[in-house]
Amino acid sequence: MKVITSLLAVGLIIMGVFLFTSKQNERALENDLRAQYTNRMTEASEKLSELQKSVQSATVFKDPVAQAEPLEDIWRLSSEIKSDISSLPLQQDFSNEWMNYLGRLGDYAKLKSQGKVPEEKWLTVTTNVAANLDEFSYEWQNASTELLAKQQSFSEWQKEIKAAQPSEQWTKMSTTVKGYSESDFPLTASESDNQKKKDLKSIKDKPVTEQQVVKKMKEMFPKFKNAKIVTSSSKPGASYPFYHISFNEGIRTGYTDYTEKGGHLLSMLIERPIGKDRITQEQMKEKAEKAVKSFGFEDVVLVETRENHLVWHVVFVRVDPVNEARIYADAIQLKLAKDDGEILGVNTMEYIQKETLPKQKLVPVDWKEYFTDQVTIESEVLAYTENDLLQQRLCYEIMVLKESKDESHTFRILVDTETHEVLKSEMLN
């Protein structure tokens, strides 16, 4: 009995030491995280001061060469502060608005450095930005100092950040930055169209019922007609209303989303073990093309395949019926299992939004004059892609091979058919 009692006592002591050590380790981790976040917030404050100076400097010079450095600093600092903010546990609405503002400021500076913003417009906008940053910097210093000075535990800090009712100070800052964005960088027509596209504003179809969507899901994916299904609707306030369907069939678990308007497939994802068998790339392409047609997408062409050790990722894009140009903004992504080519993922978000395409001239290009003698044109097709202003532009999509004595590289280049500006250029190997 004494032996058992002694063993129990020893066991309790060991458990107590373990719990004490675990608690100490947990506190140490919390302290490390708090120190990391404190450093990040301090860095963001310092970079904000630098950003203010760079914006002021960019309004001093008219000469493009003299303007180059402050413009580069604006773009760099905006990106770095965005990175700092994204890693901090701050109130979500504020983070979103502040990162959006910084992103637009950086992009605007980049466009100015490329000569795409008139001097008068640049001076007007940056004068407002400079004044707003001065005012915001004061509010940011107060809010961040108050947050760091509380000396509360890390868990309490997180609880405050994630609270349903955020502090008035952060809410006010979120509203302030939102106002800056709307006044300093009002949406252009193309940006407004792009935002409407993201919010599925172009879908004018009549709403469908939950039962209709479930029926459609079973028709599109007959393998799951007998699966256990749970359906739900998107929360109030969502950018667009949709139905969410979760399902389970044997070793397969997944979900699929459909728009409420028209019942369009948005996405589908399936999880299941991948076997050791492997189909060929050609077999995979055949299965992918058969699948998109079975889903009702007849106007697409396969443009890209990528792989990892378990799955193939395949991209299809819509083809314009008038000029047969590829519309890269209207894309469908598929994920296929490598063992048998089963469709494990579908994303049609871009495809169902359907771009509005402008009329555009096709001005011929003498490629012998456009490229060097080292370049050989492998293929040429028409394609639509976005320019810096988010406008769809018709392009000559050229695949070229550049050869020299020591090496060769393949490039994919998109050249505007009207202005002959290079909108995209990437080296493939």
From TrEMBL:
InterPro entries to which the protein is assigned, alphabetical: YpeB_N, YpeB_PepSY1-2
Pfam families: YPEB_N, YPEB_PepSY1-2
Source organism of this protein record: Paenisporosarcina macmurdoensis
Protein's name in the database: PepSY1/2 domain-containing protein
Domain Sporulation protein YpeB PepSY1 and PepSY2 stretches: 168-354
Residues covered by the Sporulation protein YpeB N-terminal domain: 27-120
